Fold:
Amino acid sequence: MMIPDFKPYELCSLSNDELDALFVYIREKLCETAPGSSERERALKLLDAIRFELKRRIAKRFGWINPAS
Structure:
């Protein structure tokens, strides 16, 4: 299984469609990983970073101040 190696700061350079496709790909591949493996942990961290990036984009679009909450 191959989880892409993105750093959280690299996600902001992706388009919305690319970010959505990456999210779907990782969610599909997540079921193929063994519980407790380093690959699964990396996938979960990347999903969390994608979720935060999506929240940041929504906050920016609507002018909200704190997307982290």
